[in-house]
Predict the 3D structure of the following.
Amino acid sequence: MQKGIISIIYHSNHGHTEQAAHMLAAALESPHTVVHLIHVSNVKQNWSTLHGSDTIVFGCPTYFGNVSAGFKAFMETTGSFWYKQLWKNKWAAGFTVSSTIGGDKLNTLQSLALFAAQHSMHWISLGVLPRYINDEQTDGQNRLASYMGLMIQSDNSQQRVDAIHPGDLLTIELFAQRLMEVTLQSKNSLLQLDSATSL
């Protein structure tokens, strides 16, 4: 079994999204994966890493109901190779952070999914159902009831970064398991197909 290569490319202004990106990267670490964590400010030195990835996870804060300006700038730089479709058939996923429960984070995830679609990538949804006890939703896994991708609620401080809510931490871990599962199943299926066709 070959290792799955998963890259997280993210933008963060005040540290909240960076905190989430690091936690997701840590949850993705395994004997079967190679994980790269890239801030958009360092993307010029890491294009080859992204091009060589099996899965690319996009992350940014939600500002005024959409992706942050820093992440949008990154998206636009990919226009230089978009027409070559270098990311075609790679897997993509997304996460976003805002200081409110809603905050129009869904619109941000939809923007990230559309961006992936323009690069002909396959989108990995969150794949984590909310939990209910006595017909009431719990404050645990997928407490923000997102399905398109990972939503995280942070504090609203520009001076500190508080701990992520335990329910969001659990959702990060479950999302990481899904990302690994999809990446490894796909990669090894392709390897088996290549071996069969070369016989």
Helices lie at 16-28, 47-51, 69-77, 79-82, 105-118, 166-198. The first helix runs from residue 16 to 28.
